[in-house]
Amino acid sequence: MAQFIQTKHGKPVLVNLNQLLSHHLLITGMTGSGKSSTLLSLAEQLQRENHIGIIFDATGEFNHLHDAIIYKLGVNANLPLSQLSVDNIARILSFDASTLYKKLVAAVQSLKINQNIMHQSGTYIKINQELITYNKRVQALRYAGSDYDASKLADQITEEFIQPLENSTANFNFLGQQYNHAEIQKYWDDILHAKLLLSNRHTQKVFGLPHSFANSNQDNETQFDLIYVLKLFSGMKSRHRTLIIDISDIQDDTKTSQLVMDILLKQLLFIRAKSNLRLPVTVLLDEYHRYVPKNAEVMDSGVFKLLREGRKYGLYAVLSTQSPLDLPTQIRGQFGSVLAHRLQDSSEIDSILAKQSRKKLPQLANGDGLLKLYESKKPKLVHVVAPETQHDTDSPRFLMASQDDFHFINQ
């Protein structure tokens, strides 16, 4: 059961979790209205019921939740680039041109050959290599490992731009005999961007790439593969029932954070779809307006797929956002239950609740909310039970050197 306090009578209101979460729950409200406290309180109540919860923490506010396992992306966890699909790598590297995509596919295969067949580091040199030899190595990959050094992708892409000689000495039994300098120049801005990105310290830590930056205590901390962590945790029977994935370190990079969230949610859905386990897992997405994809990408986004397909695999979403209008209509329409804290804008209110709520929502105190459950006719006025876990979401206060207030002069 999830517990709220009914404001009108001051009595506890017990809500069945199936009723509250089975069609996903949207929590919304302006800054300081109680969204984070509500999410934290719900996480604690899921723990008490011994249910599995996975929190994607955008702000780092959930790190004090008791009896939780915490992984912080870029510190003690990463999303290994070498284990991602070529499509996802192309998005991370901002490769839009079809030619660069094809070269990226070839580069991944070349690096796999170099590491698993040739047992060499660095890039795989393809100039003056016979086609028949290369094909044998490609076939051998079927029985070898699939790891590769993803930090060398940009360098390897340059190696893929090769062609035969442009005279009578051209040998078409080779992969190529010279670099295609014209094509390399044409795509150099994109290749250079990829080089710089893959050599960036932050990128290396987030995507688990080999690095050579100076050691520090944080850099020496063991990093875990988040995809493996999700696979392990989503079917684990343990007293540690809450997994926190702290992605607050990348909140300043909108594109990267959107991609990371998209990849993680799709991976979680894929893991559950392939598993025979049907333990219910509640996925709590804090401050999701930070990661909203563009409208053109909504239908293929991880959050839309989770909301649309997750329930049949036992995945139930709780999403918090400051304004419901920050969410595209395709996503907003997937929620059966809504808990609305204080909202001022009438268009925001109308997008999730009936117009009769216009008078109540702007006047709600912190922690108060209108709870509209799936298939219920009217929302209930409730106050969320305060979480036991301490968290600080207050805005910084001005410190005054004197006791005087600001003075204004009447005109």
Automatic annotation (TrEMBL):
Domain AAA+ ATPase: 21-353
Pfam families: DUF87
Superkingdom of origin: Bacteria
Cross-referenced InterPro entries: AAA+_ATPase (IPR003593), HerA-like (IPR008571), HerA_central (IPR002789), P-loop_NTPase (IPR027417)
Protein name per UniProt: Predicted ATPase
Organism: Leuconostoc citreum (strain KM20)
